[in-house]
From TrEMBL:
Residues 417-506 form the Ig-like domain. One of its GO terms (molecular function) is ATP binding. It comes from the Eukaryota. This is Myosin light chain kinase, smooth muscle.
């Protein structure tokens, strides 16, 4: 048994379930050797984020500690920069931008969602999201940790989830993709979703980009982005025109009242794509996609689903129902035999090529046109169900050449490492968190090493190295002391060359400051 599990069993045997060490074989199917199953409740746990499973509850064993959750009250007396150091930009959206943040006191990494607050309406939308997230304390849902408001913006400080988008992770050459793996991820999504629904909240924007991995090394996931989430009240039906065409339910397009089962439709679409790499409703244009959705016109691709179990296909069929009343609820999904079978389908490795093509198509959609076409529907009214219109097949022809094109482009674009942003000299107070940061570019991806006064830096509880896929590289030192002062350098190496940049760090003791 892993040390952390063994210690728990030894110290808490009367309180917590024992763990079945014979499940290592299944863990390999899940792309991760850190997965174990509780022999009492049959729940799977990832020991990378280990929390024991309490006897008799049947609860998941990989949740967060109670202390990790925060009831956020918007801070109007401080700026976000008073508490956090702003690092590189992580992304941009219609609402504003997301930056990586470093908590000055603890050295903890977070993500800051910066809302443009040009009007009272903009501010109210951000406040609504914070209010909803205060009720969504669950390990499968990303957490809001703090919030700051000024006259021009609202910043939500979120937990930093470092593993990247789930679908991008699955096409990685080192990841094994099986039906069991897909089942495990769908189960986690539903755990988070069921908690949301039990709290009276519907997500309304479930899609691959909003399912992210907890870390690069384990298979835990979290649902993110609650910007479109709504609290449902049976006495006040909610109608929306928002979402992403491939993943929205028919009632959204038809401007009918949304339901909790509006989310489970999206789970059905995501499950279909996970298992096949194909999008069940995708057309040549958004209009064609929306027409396919409103008609609930889809089928299992014969080749893609040849090796997929009947239980998995029944699960998807139970969700992609045009009438929301006929769909499984999130609770019903968790009781479905596909998610509760010991075998959980065949273990044959699934092809990743169609998934790569799907992701390429998604990227082209993002850069070529807006993802959201639904607001145009307000000009024409709700769509009518039309079963006679033939479905336009997804444009796979141009995608079939993608690996060939990317391979040729990769060879032409290979470059030696270089720094687009170099290290800068820093002077910090004793006890603060220090972040030395640079940006590296080069193809193939460079290997990175950090040095202090010519000696390699060792990672510890206090010293962390972060290297993002986009080339941002950081050396983070928590609770800095004068002994950390020195000359720091970052070296990047690939097959074409090597580059290095350096900077000095001076950590001033409080005594030295007082003497000045």
């Amino acid at each position: 048994l892993p040390i952390c599990v063994s210690m728990c069993v030894h110290e808490c045997a009367r309180t917590y379930a024992l763990w079945d060490a014979s499940l290592l074989e299944r863990a390999q199917y899940q792309c991760c050797t850190c997965l174990w199953t509780c022999v009492v409740c049959a729940c799977v746990v990832c020991v990378c984020e280990f929390r024991p499973c309490v006897l008799g509850t049947g609860a998941r064993g990989d949740g967060e500690e109670e202390g990790e959750y925060h009831h956020v009250v918007i801070n109007r007396s401080q700026k976000v920069t008073d508490v956090y150091q702003q690092l590189e930009r992580l992304g941009v959206g219609k609402f504003g931008q997301v930056y990586k943040l470093l908590e000055r006191a603890s050295g903890r990494l977070c993500a800051g969602k910066y809302y443009k607050a040009r009007s009272a309406k903009d501010k109210q939308l951000a406040r609504n999201e914070i209010h909803i997230m205060n009720s969504l304390h669950h390990p499968r849902l990303v957490q809001c940790m703090a919030a700051f408001e000024t006259s021009t913006e609202i910043v939500m400080v979120m937990e930093y989830v470092a593993g990247g988008e789930l679908f991008e992770r699955l096409v990685d050459k080192d990841e094994e993709l099986t039906e069991q793996t897909c089942c495990w991820y769908v189960q986690q999504m539903l755990e988070g979703l069921q908690f949301m629904h039990s709290s009276g909240v519907v997500h309304l924007d479930l899609k691959p980009e909003n399912v992210v991995c907890v870390s690069p090394t384990c298979t835990g996931i979290k649902i993110i982005d609650f910007g479109l989430a709504q609290r449902l009240d049976p006495s006040a039906p909610v109608k929306v025109l928002c979402g992403t065409p491939e993943f929205v339910a028919p009632e959204v397009i038809n401007y009918e009242a949304v339901q909790f089962n509006t989310d489970t439709w999206s789970i059905g679409v995501i499950s279909y794509i996970l298992l096949s790499g194909l999008s069940p409703f995708l057309g040549d244009t958004d209009d064609e996609t929306l027409a396919n959705v409103t008609a609930a016109r889809w089928e299992f691709d014969e080749e893609a689903f040849e090796e997929i179990s009947e239980d998995a296909k029944d699960f998807i069929s139970s969700l992609l129902q045009r009438d929301w009343r006929r769909r499984l609820s999130s609770e019903g999904c968790l009781s479905h035999r596909w998610l509760n079978s010991r075998r959980r389908g065949v273990t044959k490795t699934l092809s990743k090529e169609r998934m790569k093509q799907f992701l390429a198509k998604r990227k082209w959609q993002k850069t070529g046109r807006a993802l959201l076409a639904l607001k145009r529907l307000t000009l024409r009214g709700p769509r009518k169900h039309n079963t006679q219109r033939p479905r336009s097949p997804p444009p796979h022809n141009e995608l079939s050449r993608e690996p060939e094109v990317l391979s040729a482009a990769d060879q032409q674009l290979q470059t030696e490492p270089s720094f687009s942003k170099v290290l800068g000299d820093l002077e910090e107070l004793e006890g603060s968190a220090v972040c030395l940061q640079c940006h590296i570019q080069g193809t193939p991806e460079p290997e990175v090493m950090w040095y202090k006064d010519g000696q390699a830096v060792s990672v510890s509880r206090r010293v962390r190295i972060e290297y993002e896929e986009d080339g941002n590289c950081s050396l983070i030192i928590a609770n800095a002391s004068p002994a950390d002062s020195g000359q720091y350098s970052c070296r990047a190496t690939n097959s074409l060359g090597v580059c290095r940049c350096s900077a000095s760090l001076t950590v001033l003791s409080l005594i030295a400051i007082q003497r000045r």
